Amino acid sequence: MNLPNKLTLIRIILVPFFIASLLINFPHHFIVALILFSAASITDCLDGKIARKNNLVTDFGKFLDPLADKILVISALVCFVALGISDCIIVIIVVFREFTVTSVRLMAASKGKVVAANIFGKIKTVTQMIAVIAIFVLQYALELINMGTIPLSTDIYDFLSLLFFIIGEVLLWVSTIFVILSGIIYVFENKKFIIEK
């Protein structure tokens, strides 16, 4: 197994640790989750660059890389719903899009074709990761206020909680627009695999 594929596997291996750090309420757990998510996101940048630069692009990597992205981002979104940070509608849209794109990939694979992610899929992933990282930062700020590290009144805390929730939702909905657009473009570009008999 080459280095880019190993980096992609590391991204998948980090997911359970990331989920645990997000859902288990211990001091500074949001910053730990942020570090793990950021480390996983960095492997996403590195694996593709290394693969292209050193001519190490493989069919396995073309399948595994987008799958690792999906596992990482969907895990974060589901945890956000569990923590009351996000709306479940976003998760439903993202999961629907990913099942649709994966189905197209499988149809292409059954015809001996490997369809890699397009630029719109990469933009979608980047906007999702930016939204998730921003939410971690905002939630960590609230955690510090709760711990008394940043002394603020209850009224200000309540205002910031609402403000940070709105900011997080806006960022997630912006990324969800790219989720929808990239899914439509992906299906349209690969419709030949859907309508072929």
Shape: globular
Cα radius of gyration in angstroms: 18 Å
Beta-strand residue percentage: under 5%
Biggest pleated sheet: none
- Distance between the amino and carboxyl termini: 35 Å
Question: How helical, in percent, are the residues?
Answer: over 70%
The CATH class is identified as Mainly Alpha
Number of strands: 0
Series of H and E elements? HHHHHHH
Report the structural category: mainly alpha
Mean pLDDT: 88
- Helical stretch tally: 7
What does this 3D model show about the protein?
With 197 residues, this protein is mainly alpha-helical. It has one domain (3-195): Four Helix Bundle (Hemerythrin (Met), subunit A) (Up-down Bundle), CATH 1.20.120. It is 83% helix and 0% strand. The protein contains seven helices and no strands. The longest helix is centred in the C-terminal third of the chain and has 36 residues, at 154-189. The protein is globular. The two termini are 35 Å apart.
Summarize the structure.
With about 200 residues, this protein is mainly alpha-helical.
